[in-house]
Amino acid sequence: MAINERKAAIIGCGFVGASIAFRFLQQGLFSRLVLLDANRAKAEGEAMDLSDGLPYGAAMEISAGTYDDIADCGLVVVTAGVNQKPGETRLELIGRNAVILKSIIGEITARDFQGILLIVSNPVDVLTHVAWKLSGYPKERVIGSGTVLDTARLKQLLGEEMGVDSRNVHAFIVGEHGDSELAVWSGANVSGLDLDDFCRLRGKELHQPARERIYREIRDSANEIIKRKGATYYGIAMAVGRIAACIVRDEHAVLPISVALEGEYGLEGVTMSVPSIVGKNGLEKILEIPLGKEEREALSRSAGQLREAVDSLKLD
Known about the structure:
Elements: E1 4-11, H1 15-27, E2 32-36, H2 40-51, E3 61-64, E4 73-78, H3 94-109, E5 116-119, H4 124-135, E6 142-144, H5 148-162, E7 169-170, E8 173-174, E9 182-183, E10 189-190, E11 193-194, H6 195-202, H7 208-219, H8 221-229, H9 234-248, E12 253-262, E13 268-279, E14 282-286, H10 293-312
Parallel strand pairs: 1-2, 1-4, 2-3, 4-5, 5-6
Antiparallel strand pairs: 7-10, 8-9, 10-11, 12-13, 13-14
Helix pairs in contact: 1-9, 3-4, 4-10, 5-7
């Protein structure tokens, strides 16, 4: 079946799925959007609500559907799963959400789907690995939202700290989208200027205690939001919208998505978030960016935790 690159589906219409659908409506990336949920009425209600805004948004068709509607989609976004509870780590969600994902992957592969599969459900790195293994698709077509959101948080906080537009800040959070993630301080810059050099020019200081404070705020951000409002969804919707734009517009942009590593950074048998080039075919190339000794060791520790989580699922 021919792929319709401007047709997308979202599986899971909770807060995250609905927010992503709203973001897609705003962006005008797709001409057709199909919503799927275990609760059919929920998907229908979200489609109806979103469609009411079409006269003020992009021209597109939004409808509730079934798995039969996804075969020709260029992009399928999976957000289905149980929510993270206050104080619960993303890795503690593994068992419950892996069962849900296995069922979804079985439905998708039964439809000869040839597009790109974007996993958003948490723990995203582990579930992206599960989706890749169970689907049998090339790793280029099975990616996760990874630390795209965490990286946005880093850019925003650094921008606030240094009094500069966060869009001029270039830095990455890599590793697990979770507690073992790490900030790549060694490569951080502001419009090409080394972070330390920019700080001096700006009359600012960003010593180790400040960096640790920023890192902790990023790492704990989801839990802090969940404590206050029960769930996170706007930020991840913006992040997924950015990934989708890279795919639909073939931007060849660099984003820290979840990808399966097969020797990169000296790691294999694990899926985690590292800077990668993203275009119309999904993952185009994993970039092995320079890391400091401590950063490389931290990345290896993060990979070890993720590998243990995957092994606990006994996929083989």
